[in-house]
Amino acid sequence: MIKTILVPTSGTQTDESVFATALGVARPLAAHLDFYHVRLSVCEAAVRLPHVQFCVGPAIRHAIEDLEQRDHRLSAAASKHFEDFCADNKVGVRGAPIAVDGVTAQRLEETDQAERRLLFHARHRDLVVIGRPHTSDLMPFNLIEVLLMGSGRPIVIAPDSKPAEISGTIVVAWKETPEAARALGAAMPLLRQARRVVLVGIAEEGNAADALDHLARQLKWHGIAAEALFVNDKAKKAVAVGLVETAMNLGADMLVVGGYGHGPLREVMFGGVTHALIEHAQLPVFMMH
């Protein structure tokens, strides 16, 4: 069951697509959204900007002022983005669970120790919806990998543009691995709500097509009439490209994949899907380690 969703906010332009993705996930589940913003004190922000350490004289004062202004600007923007989102989408602001049929939300804000705090909150929610990395909020570029590897929770990576909905067509990238099985299990609440589910396998083993058909039959026990699509990629294109192309051709609203955990994440499903899937997919990507 997915009832609580953590939505890290940056106070930048990426909030728009992240918020829309989170709403698309939450609506069919009537879930609660926790919008979470981490502020950075001058000291922690300075550590994340090494060039500040080389400032001397008046430059130090200017650097401190710039960091303070950046923090206030991002915090104010994140708050306004949240307020506008709730007003535009008629989302009720709630700090405690109550009996309602629709999506609810609240905003939380803390200061410093961003990675530790985000991991804490992610572990206490059912799902995380996060945007792609950028430099404006001074978060680490491997934050998605940190959350994926350390939270024990599934993650949805929002695309750069706002998705229309999540409950239309969902594509599940499948390989006979525990990572793929965990991703499938975590995504079951969304798969049950989807109008169409397509299992996509890529030729690597002789019996892969049979395994895909078997999985589709098993999902019928859950009331999911999944289609099995076996892709024999003779062109040997990058699997990340092939998966995204297949999902887009099927009109998918989301791609579900399993994430491998061999050190810092640089490869995902099928051993050949690199961080390009995280950074460049044009649709929401649901991942589970």
Give the full name of the CATH homologous superfamily of the largest domain: HUPs
Rounded to the nearest angstrom, the distance between the terminal CA atoms is 17 Å
- Please tell me the overall pLDDT: 85
CATH top level of the largest domain?
Alpha Beta
The side-by-side strand order for the widest beta sheet comes to: 3-4-2-1-5-6-11-10-7-8-9
CATH architecture of the largest domain: 3-Layer(aba) Sandwich
- Computed over alpha carbons, the radius of gyration is 20 Å
Q: What does the largest sheet look like?
A: 11 strands, mixed
In short:
This protein has 289 residues and is α/β, with parallel strands linked by helices. The chain contains nine helices and eleven strands. An eleven-stranded mixed beta sheet has the order 3-4-2-1-5-6-11-10-7-8-9, with helices on both faces.
Structure overview:
- This protein has 2 domains: 4-157, 3-Layer(aba) Sandwich (Rossmann fold); 169-288, HUPs (Rossmann fold), CATH 3.40.50.620.
- It is built from 9 helices and 11 strands.
- It has helices at 15-26, 42-47, 58-89, 114-123, 143-150, 178-193, 208-219, 239-249, 276-280; strands at residues 4-8, 32-39, 92-93, 104-111, 127-130, 155-157, 169-174, 196-202, 227-231, 254-258, 285-288.
